[in-house]
Design a protein that fits this description.
With about 200 residues, the protein is of the alpha/beta class. It has helices at about 15-25, 30-40, 45-55, 65-75, 80-105, 140-150, 155-160, 165-170, 185-195; strands at about 1-5, 25-30, 110-115, 130-135, 175-180. The protein folds into two domains: about 1-25 and about 110-195, Rossmann fold, CATH 3.40.50; about 35-105, 3-Layer(aba) Sandwich (Rossmann fold), CATH 3.40.50. A five-stranded parallel beta sheet has the order 2-3-1-4-5, with helices on both faces.
Amino acid sequence: MKIIGITGGVGAGKSKVLSYIEAHYKCRIIRADEAAHLLYEPGQECYQELVGFLGQQILDTDHTIDKAKMAGIIFRDQKLLEGVNKIVHPAVKKYIQEQIAYEKEKGEADYFFIEAALLIEEQYDQIADELWYIHSDVAVREQRLAESRHYSAQKTADIMRGQLSEAEFREHCKVVISNNGDLEETYEQIKHIMGD
Protein backbone atom coordinates (compact mmCIF):
# COMPACT_ATOMS: atom_id res chain seq x y z
CA MET A 1 0.00 0.00 0.00
CA LYS A 2 1.44 3.32 -1.10
CA ILE A 3 1.01 6.29 1.25
CA ILE A 4 0.52 9.65 -0.45
CA GLY A 5 0.16 13.07 1.13
CA ILE A 6 -1.93 15.65 -0.72
CA THR A 7 -1.61 19.38 -0.10
CA GLY A 8 -2.13 22.73 -1.77
CA GLY A 9 -3.29 26.23 -1.02
CA VAL A 10 -6.84 27.13 -0.06
CA GLY A 11 -9.18 26.84 -3.05
CA ALA A 12 -6.78 24.67 -5.08
CA GLY A 13 -9.42 21.95 -5.49
CA LYS A 14 -8.00 19.19 -3.28
CA SER A 15 -11.51 17.86 -2.59
CA LYS A 16 -12.30 17.48 -6.31
CA VAL A 17 -9.04 15.58 -6.89
CA LEU A 18 -9.69 13.30 -3.92
CA SER A 19 -13.31 12.64 -4.96
CA TYR A 20 -12.07 11.45 -8.35
CA ILE A 21 -9.37 9.26 -6.78
CA GLU A 22 -11.86 7.80 -4.29
CA ALA A 23 -14.24 6.86 -7.11
CA HIS A 24 -11.59 5.25 -9.36
CA TYR A 25 -8.96 3.58 -7.14
CA LYS A 26 -8.83 1.12 -4.25
CA CYS A 27 -7.84 3.56 -1.55
CA ARG A 28 -8.52 4.99 1.87
CA ILE A 29 -8.59 8.77 2.25
CA ILE A 30 -8.18 10.67 5.49
CA ARG A 31 -8.62 14.42 5.68
CA ALA A 32 -6.66 15.81 8.63
CA ASP A 33 -9.33 18.37 9.57
CA GLU A 34 -12.02 15.65 9.66
CA ALA A 35 -9.75 13.49 11.82
CA ALA A 36 -9.27 16.46 14.18
CA HIS A 37 -13.05 16.92 14.50
CA LEU A 38 -13.37 13.24 15.43
CA LEU A 39 -10.79 13.71 18.16
CA TYR A 40 -12.73 16.71 19.56
CA GLU A 41 -15.67 14.46 20.50
CA PRO A 42 -16.32 13.76 24.21
CA GLY A 43 -14.26 10.79 25.34
CA GLN A 44 -11.78 11.20 22.46
CA GLU A 45 -8.13 12.09 22.79
CA CYS A 46 -8.25 15.90 22.42
CA TYR A 47 -11.54 16.67 24.18
CA GLN A 48 -10.38 16.87 27.80
CA GLU A 49 -7.13 18.64 26.94
CA LEU A 50 -8.87 21.30 24.85
CA VAL A 51 -11.52 21.96 27.51
CA GLY A 52 -8.77 22.11 30.16
CA PHE A 53 -6.74 24.51 28.04
CA LEU A 54 -9.49 26.83 26.73
CA GLY A 55 -12.15 26.42 29.43
CA GLN A 56 -15.89 25.65 29.44
CA GLN A 57 -16.55 28.63 27.15
CA ILE A 58 -15.87 26.44 24.08
CA LEU A 59 -18.65 23.98 25.00
CA ASP A 60 -22.14 23.81 23.56
CA THR A 61 -25.16 23.09 25.79
CA ASP A 62 -24.75 19.34 25.10
CA HIS A 63 -21.10 19.53 26.32
CA THR A 64 -19.63 18.95 22.86
CA ILE A 65 -16.98 21.36 21.64
CA ASP A 66 -18.53 24.16 19.57
CA LYS A 67 -15.97 24.44 16.76
CA ALA A 68 -17.16 27.92 15.72
CA LYS A 69 -16.82 29.22 19.29
CA MET A 70 -13.38 27.66 19.61
CA ALA A 71 -12.24 29.12 16.27
CA GLY A 72 -13.49 32.56 17.32
CA ILE A 73 -11.36 32.41 20.45
CA ILE A 74 -8.13 30.95 19.09
CA PHE A 75 -7.82 32.83 15.82
CA ARG A 76 -7.69 36.14 17.71
CA ASP A 77 -4.84 34.97 19.93
CA GLN A 78 -1.63 33.51 18.47
CA LYS A 79 -0.58 31.92 21.80
CA LEU A 80 -3.90 30.11 22.14
CA LEU A 81 -3.75 28.97 18.52
CA GLU A 82 -0.25 27.57 19.05
CA GLY A 83 -1.40 25.83 22.24
CA VAL A 84 -4.34 24.20 20.48
CA ASN A 85 -2.09 23.12 17.59
CA LYS A 86 0.30 21.47 20.09
CA ILE A 87 -2.63 19.42 21.41
CA VAL A 88 -4.34 18.62 18.11
CA HIS A 89 -1.60 18.07 15.50
CA PRO A 90 0.30 15.25 17.28
CA ALA A 91 -3.01 13.51 18.10
CA VAL A 92 -4.15 13.71 14.45
CA LYS A 93 -0.81 12.34 13.24
CA LYS A 94 -1.01 9.46 15.73
CA TYR A 95 -4.59 8.70 14.63
CA ILE A 96 -3.54 8.69 10.96
CA GLN A 97 -0.62 6.35 11.70
CA GLU A 98 -3.01 3.98 13.51
CA GLN A 99 -5.35 4.03 10.49
CA ILE A 100 -2.42 3.31 8.12
CA ALA A 101 -1.47 0.29 10.27
CA TYR A 102 -5.11 -0.86 10.24
CA GLU A 103 -5.39 -0.58 6.45
CA LYS A 104 -2.07 -2.38 5.92
CA GLU A 105 -3.32 -5.24 8.08
CA LYS A 106 -6.66 -5.34 6.24
CA GLY A 107 -4.78 -5.45 2.94
CA GLU A 108 -7.58 -4.20 0.70
CA ALA A 109 -6.37 -0.71 -0.30
CA ASP A 110 -3.66 -0.03 -2.87
CA TYR A 111 -3.28 3.58 -1.72
CA PHE A 112 -3.68 5.58 1.46
CA PHE A 113 -4.15 9.32 0.93
CA ILE A 114 -3.64 11.93 3.62
CA GLU A 115 -5.03 15.39 2.88
CA ALA A 116 -3.76 18.15 5.15
CA ALA A 117 -3.28 21.89 4.82
CA LEU A 118 -0.15 21.67 7.00
CA LEU A 119 1.20 18.48 5.43
CA ILE A 120 4.67 19.95 4.89
CA GLU A 121 4.85 22.00 8.09
CA GLU A 122 3.81 18.99 10.19
CA GLN A 123 6.39 16.76 8.45
CA TYR A 124 4.03 14.20 6.98
CA ASP A 125 6.85 13.37 4.58
CA GLN A 126 8.09 11.16 7.43
CA ILE A 127 4.91 9.07 7.10
CA ALA A 128 4.10 9.31 3.38
CA ASP A 129 5.98 7.69 0.50
CA GLU A 130 5.51 10.87 -1.53
CA LEU A 131 3.78 14.25 -1.39
CA TRP A 132 1.52 15.66 -4.11
CA TYR A 133 0.85 19.35 -4.63
CA ILE A 134 -2.47 20.45 -6.13
CA HIS A 135 -1.74 23.74 -7.88
CA SER A 136 -4.20 26.39 -9.07
CA ASP A 137 -3.45 29.96 -10.09
CA VAL A 138 -4.25 32.58 -7.46
CA ALA A 139 -6.98 34.20 -9.59
CA VAL A 140 -8.71 30.82 -10.05
CA ARG A 141 -8.57 30.12 -6.31
CA GLU A 142 -9.93 33.58 -5.48
CA GLN A 143 -12.87 33.06 -7.81
CA ARG A 144 -13.60 29.56 -6.45
CA LEU A 145 -13.57 30.75 -2.85
CA ALA A 146 -15.81 33.70 -3.64
CA GLU A 147 -18.31 31.42 -5.39
CA SER A 148 -18.25 28.28 -3.24
CA ARG A 149 -17.55 29.67 0.24
CA HIS A 150 -18.58 33.32 -0.26
CA TYR A 151 -15.17 34.50 1.02
CA SER A 152 -14.35 38.16 0.62
CA ALA A 153 -11.19 39.07 -1.29
CA GLN A 154 -9.70 40.19 2.05
CA LYS A 155 -10.45 36.89 3.80
CA THR A 156 -8.94 34.91 0.91
CA ALA A 157 -5.83 37.13 0.89
CA ASP A 158 -5.41 36.69 4.67
CA ILE A 159 -5.63 32.90 4.42
CA MET A 160 -3.25 32.73 1.46
CA ARG A 161 -0.72 34.91 3.27
CA GLY A 162 -0.60 32.35 6.09
CA GLN A 163 0.11 29.44 3.73
CA LEU A 164 3.31 28.25 2.10
CA SER A 165 4.49 29.89 -1.10
CA GLU A 166 4.26 28.23 -4.50
CA ALA A 167 8.04 27.60 -4.41
CA GLU A 168 7.86 25.93 -0.98
CA PHE A 169 5.04 23.61 -2.06
CA ARG A 170 6.94 22.65 -5.21
CA GLU A 171 10.20 22.12 -3.33
CA HIS A 172 8.67 19.50 -1.01
CA CYS A 173 6.28 17.70 -3.36
CA LYS A 174 7.34 15.03 -5.84
CA VAL A 175 4.16 15.33 -7.92
CA VAL A 176 2.43 18.54 -9.08
CA ILE A 177 -1.12 18.38 -10.43
CA SER A 178 -2.38 21.48 -12.21
CA ASN A 179 -6.06 22.16 -11.46
CA ASN A 180 -7.04 25.41 -13.14
CA GLY A 181 -10.61 24.64 -14.08
CA ASP A 182 -10.79 21.96 -16.76
CA LEU A 183 -11.50 18.90 -14.61
CA GLU A 184 -11.00 16.49 -17.50
CA GLU A 185 -7.42 17.79 -17.83
CA THR A 186 -6.92 17.31 -14.10
CA TYR A 187 -8.30 13.76 -14.25
CA GLU A 188 -6.02 12.92 -17.19
CA GLN A 189 -3.02 14.00 -15.11
CA ILE A 190 -4.16 11.76 -12.24
CA LYS A 191 -4.59 8.79 -14.58
CA HIS A 192 -1.11 9.37 -15.99
CA ILE A 193 0.44 9.57 -12.50
CA MET A 194 -1.37 6.41 -11.41
CA GLY A 195 -0.07 4.60 -14.48
CA ASP A 196 -3.42 4.15 -16.25
